[in-house]
């Protein structure tokens, strides 16, 4: 069977090498004249485009696969890619000015100058080059490096042979050729996103103290609260749901997987969909983060996998004891060590270069803050260094390539154990044979609870229990992180210490810790840095567990059941609270509640609206918007006051519950929500989609789903603009969705949806086509096997080629 499939692939690819369609895919139409008759040698690939601009890339080796991927990504996303390459070169200030804000795609840097100082420092120090030279598995494999080389060549070939039509960068001088090093540096930026990338402003601003009074710090209690907010997955612009069902729950004994990552809808952390094929070697379909050369989330003939943002804390701090005579010298076991100066110069638009010094230690860079709420002052006696083990991790692509070639969930686990390259995500997988798999296999600093107990500073004794952020005594060698024998690098946990759960009726994660991956078989025994045990779960986790446990109990599941779950749009918070609010509201004297500032508001109409609301957030749901605006405002009510029945670790899915309508903030939240909607001219019972929408090419598309606090599986984080009619854009939420199973054929049964579509170019036909599907809760039927690709009514075959 495999030989026959291989011969079929070779036949189709061979035909495509000599047959170029009369016109290129619309995204590349401006270059059609050149592409009909490519000249020269070099790298090439065949791209078959099917509906919605999804490319199926066929190549004879990894370099050529990278070439086709780089070409096709540039065709859809050249401006966003070029912007990211500018970032990792440290050249944003040169073209956009030093004070402008970044889009936060590749770091938390607040300004272009801060971003440039960091990334130019990475470039000047040769950090990525050193990682590229490290032998696998410590460094990237030859195959991955070949995809990077090919990606750069494919991107460069596209910009050389095509006219850019996207207004975001049309005619821009900053769209320039790139190198394989640029491609690798983009991957590096993603790896350190949760570590050094989170502290860039504090790294680039860190300077030795002067005679001026030092910046004010915070109390340990304030630091604990700030760290908890900083590191909470539920407060980030990235999250996810994923569930894998094993064969005991399905109609045919095979596995099922539903992946629903929640990522930004704009910018450099968008997904991009494709199929990658090297006949006889690789055949995988799914989505890649922009700039990635391999599939990030996807499926092949036998395995499907997805990721969820994990709770593991990917950094820690070391509190340094400084030499009283020199604040750039710190003491370790009483012996002085001088900090390393890294002097970085950044070109700036319309001004002289800016030169700054960064300070580095054996633990990492000195950092003076982790966000505005967590200052870490550098004084005459104390400084803080940030340790990020992902700063030596360029293994993410190899881990993903291992998934792409896997034939079972065991192979997924083998790739995780061998490559150890996932920086900030969990992995959930299912396979054709009916296995389910979950692993919180992250690159984490090796902070054991024992080490934290022995070595935490007073600050760390507050932050570690609250958030998992360890602050260790950097003056003691016995507080070093140590190593595990099975770890691929020193100072991280080896695979044997990771939370793993296999072959259960379901394994599910919605960005809480691994504890309730399966509520009937809680995972325990891991260190605090991985996440918490026996603590309250998010509303989304609670709703998800209720849903998937019910599905597993029902059994005989099919892919269609996964599709229904994705768009069920059940609001767990509404089921817990709406009826009680409606009843309380109806009993108010005169139907009046007191809003912010003591203003009385007539809320009587809201009572019936909330009572009749169907407790869902479909675009047609009436009352959903009112409850959404009310529920957001209850976030000001302390959790201890909001519920009558507190959290019970023996009943974690059903507690806390019982809305405490007597809490003063509840009535104020309802009054404020009603006043807000009336002031905006929005009816309290208006259908959600009338006021939760996106505009694409002048057309409104109603969007269902809801915000994090409502507990919706189909998470939508919309942007409120009362003057514009309500929620008028989506900042983040459901992105690349896949529902995958298997039958007795060799073709997976897969349905996919890229919510924001393939291209950010408003002139592309694939700017909003899948967004229209998402608005209508419709799916794309995956064309994975050759017979299905060949039957596509939109099939266009093109050979892309490097010129010489």
From TrEMBL:
InterPro entries: Ntn_hydrolases_N, Penicillin_amidase_A-knob, Penicillin_amidase_dom1, Penicillin_amidase_N_B-knob, S45. The keyword Signal applies. It comes from the Bacteria. SUPFAM superfamilies: N-terminal nucleophile aminohydrolases (Ntn hydrolases). Keywords: Hydrolase, Signal, Zymogen. Residues 1-29 form the signal peptide. PANTHER family: ACYL-HOMOSERINE LACTONE ACYLASE PVDQ, PEPTIDASE S45 PENICILLIN AMIDASE. Belongs to the peptidase S45 family. This is Peptidase S45, penicillin amidase. It comes from Streptomyces globisporus.
